[in-house]
Amino acid sequence: MNRPYPQSIDLAGKLAIVIPVHNRSGFTRNCLEHLRNQTVRTFQTIVVDDGSVDGTAEMIQGDFPEVVLLHGNGSLWWTGATNLGVKVALGAGAAYILTLNDDTLPGPEFIENMMAAAARNPGALIGAFAVDAGTGRPVFGGDRMDWLTASAKDLLTDPTNPRMGLVEVTHYPGRGLLIPQEVFRRIGLFDSKYFPHYGADYDFTLRARRHAFPIFCNYSAVLGIYPEASGDAQNRKQKSAQNYYRHLFHIKGAANLKVFFWLAVRNCPKPLLPMCLPAGIARRIFGYLLDWVKEIYVNREKRDASYRSA
């Protein structure tokens, strides 16, 4: 039986962690177990299960009774599910919201380091430093938007990046993002109308920055991730006409052209929009195709080399 809507939870002045989930019980279990091992435990985890049929809800109810479990019907996607959790947390008086994906592994001092950074930087949005959960290889340390070319500068490739402490960025993904409650009070929730799955986090953080809320990558807060677990990873890994179409048009396609259009229209400085839109559309249409051609060429070279050595 589903738990009742948690009208009575009290989060006054506390941190709420909001995790949207759907049919990934293994990932969800690992994430919740890592949250149990935090050096700081003054937080409430809220999981929004959007219609899972793999036993996710039953697993949480049986093995993680400390978790507040909310339910969707399978149509919320990332944005709607996250918004549902955020609304419950704000209604219960949470001072901070941490949006977290279930395919992440927060290190033992993750929450402690995030909250310490927040205490030193009131009003700032603070994102996690992402590393490969299997190898520890740095994967994401923030980037800065270049609207003229519709691209973002990866700060991990910047030789001036100290890779320590807080580094300011222009936007951030929501898979490990600490947000003060006043940000939601000022700019509203994630936009589920234009960005039901991808893009809502970037749109939200870009809006926040326009309202003078700074955004940082916290290199002291290490978050393990699985780079191949994203909704679009298989579209890029297994090249095909069908996956190319999904990459550009599916709700879980990372290069969704509609999502990019609205992200640019709503956030790009207006003088740069005539250059940004065609550049971004071209990157999305031709980027996949160029990678596909390179992949075919590399595979052919490997095959020819094996023939020559036989």
Written description of the protein model:
This protein has 310 residues and is of the alpha/beta class. It is 41% helix and 22% strand. It has two domains: 15-229, Alpha-Beta Complex (Spore Coat Polysaccharide Biosynthesis Protein SpsA, Chain A); 234-309, no CATH class. The protein contains ten helices and twelve strands. The strands form two sheets. Strands 1, 2, 3, 4, 5, 6, 7, 10, 11 and 12 form a ten-stranded mixed β-sheet that branches. A two-stranded antiparallel sheet has the order 8-9. β1, α1 and β2 (43-50) form a beta-alpha-beta unit.
Query: What ranges have pLDDT less than 50 throughout 5 or more consecutive residues?
Result: none
- As for the number of domains, it is 2
- General shape: globular
Q: Largest sheet, described in full?
A: 10 strands, mixed
- How much strand? 15-25%
What is the β-strand count?
Answer: 12
- What is the third-level CATH name, the topology of the largest domain? Spore Coat Polysaccharide Biosynthesis Protein SpsA, Chain A
What is the helix tally? 10
CATH class categorisation of the largest domain: Alpha Beta
Mean pLDDT: 93
Rg computed from alpha carbons, rounded to a whole number of angstroms: 20 Å
Order of helices and strands: EHEHEHEEHEEEEEEHHEHHHH
Distance between termini?
63 Å
Structural class: alpha/beta
Identify the CATH architecture of the largest domain. Alpha-Beta Complex
Multimer state: single chain
Helix content: 40-55%
CATH evolutionary superfamily of the largest domain: Spore Coat Polysaccharide Biosynthesis Protein SpsA, Chain A
